[in-house]
Amino acid sequence: MSNTVTTNDISEKPVKVEKWETDALKNALDDACKKYFKETLNFTEDYKLMDGRLYISFIACLFSGFALIYDWLNPFPKSRSILIICVITYFILMSILTIYMKFIEEGKFYAGKLVDKTGVDPISCCTISSRLKKYDDKYNLTLEYNDGTDKTTNSVQTISKSVGNYFDENGVLCYDRVTNDLKKIYDQARLNTRKVK
């Protein structure tokens, strides 16, 4: 395989990251997955999962803002009980946010829908999650696919490869290598969904 990066758009700059920084590697690979599903497979991103995180954070910010304004209008001795209630509520909401991100999002970074333009086929759904542990080179990608005919039947495909398969010596992302693996697990997930029927 060549070490050059080929992309669909010539004007697009190749993604280059520090190859020893785990978070940067994971984010670059996650972004490449999103790009593949949005641009190549024409999935439309579904933001419901991420919106839950935003709603919890927004409510927590409202409590903080209310406490700040109330304390400004009624200086400390008078605002003591309101401040206590708002601070406790804020920490409870941050705990709920942590639980939400750990157990509901579970590392999912993309949820998308493929809508048939003719309206004949049902809406296909795809959710992608990834994991890359610190000081580890194994990038674990999980794709969950549902073709829309049966909401309870999902096909789950997983791939685990070294990040060295996707980046060259200079830390430049080899987009074609990522898309080849994504195409394989996406096609396998679609095939497995058809076999279940």
UniProtKB/TrEMBL annotation:
State the GO CC annotations: signal peptidase complex
This protein's major location comes to: endoplasmic reticulum
* Annotated keywords: Endoplasmic reticulum, Membrane, Transmembrane, Transmembrane helix
Q: Where are the transmembrane segments?
A: 54-73, 79-100
Entry protein name: Signal peptidase complex subunit 2
User: Topologically, how does it sit relative to the membrane?
Assistant: Multi-pass membrane protein
Which species is this record about?
Rotaria sordida
Q: What is the lineage of its organism?
A: Eukaryota, Metazoa, Spiralia, Gnathifera, Rotifera
Coiled-coil residues are none
Compartments (UniProt record)? Endoplasmic reticulum membrane
Biological process terms from the Gene Ontology for this record are: protein targeting to ER; signal peptide processing
Gene Ontology terms, MF aspect = peptidase activity
InterPro entries per the record?
A: Spc2/SPCS2
